[in-house]
Amino acid sequence: MKVSQWAEIRRLAEVEKLSRRGIARRLGCCQRTVARALRLNQPPDEKRALREMKCACRHSDYPMRANLAR
């Protein structure tokens, strides 16, 4: 998750009082990503954000798991 995405999620939750579902719809991301951002009290580490670059959901790495099973 990028710092800009974290900041926008926090802003929508705290200032506009949107629900997790509403935030996910507006930003086009997963509800789990929103929940994860709201759990963080400070911005995510930039180095980790560049490495991650995927949804925080379990299903997002499904093709990776399928390839490992071979």
Number of E strands: 0
SS-derived structural category? mainly alpha
Span of the ends, CA to CA? 29 Å
- Gyration radius from CA atoms, angstroms: 13 Å
Largest sheet: none
Topology:
Blueprint: H1 3-14, H2 20-27, H3 31-39, H4 46-52, H5 62-68
Polypeptide structure, described:
Helix 2 crosses helix 3. The protein has one domain. The chain has 70 residues and is an all-alpha fold. It contains five helices and no strands.
Keywords:
70 residues
Short note summarizing the structure:
The chain has 70 residues and is mostly helical.
